Amino acid sequence: MPISRLLLQNAGTKLLALGIACTTWYLLSGERRERISERSYRIPLSIVNIPRGTLIVSPLPDAVDVRVRGSFTQLRQLEPGKLEAVIDLIDAGPGEKRYRLEPEDINLPRQVEVIAISPPEIRVALDQVAEKTVPIVPDLVGQPAPGARVEDVTVEPRVARIQGPAKTVSRLSSVRTEPASVEGRDASFSVPSIVAAQAPGVRIREGQIVTVRVRLQRLLEPTPAARPRKR
Length: 231
Description:
Layout: H1 3-8, H2 11-33, E1 36-48, E2 54-56, E3 63-71, H3 72-77, E4 85-88, E5 95-100, E6 113-118, E7 121-137, E8 140-141, E9 148-156, E10 159-165, H4 166-171, E11 175-176, E12 180-181, E13 189-194, E14 203-206, E15 209-218
Parallel strand pairs: 1-4, 7-11, 8-12
Antiparallel strand pairs: 1-3, 2-7, 3-6, 5-7, 7-10, 9-15, 10-14, 13-15
């Protein structure tokens, strides 16, 4: 078969393939020719797969700083609001561990390179979740009116159920209400109150809303001494 006839056979398909090849080469070579840029972003830090029955008890940064490199077009098309750094605690247990942030922990397009992460590692401490029932102690402030004194203070309910990190919960023997003022009072009264926050990570499961009852007693005024009669 003549070469000319062989070249013209299926000419449309061959021209289409040639066009695709030329276009692909142009696009790839265009990316290589495009200027390379660097940008910095501050992105949120997410902790995932926290083991059931545990709490994070260490302070964590809200965000990390990431510097990336890529073509000008790729970086311009990035949506910073969709970027995040992720630490996976799937195999973690109670205790402290340091997690190094790697480029694969940042959800970036494959063509964009991570060149720096700050901080480079995150300290994560886990503790078991514990519950405990403790008495509620009413907190009074101020001074009653002259001639009156506090005779008794009660709170209803009397106990609260708290939940939080096991080490912190074990150290708590009671919880206190928000301050109730007796300033200038001269008669018994009741006021609603709440149990105040006791420690980081501890929350009130039951008994947060309480009633504080204060019983005041009026002191007897001294009888004026009789004056001696004049003779």
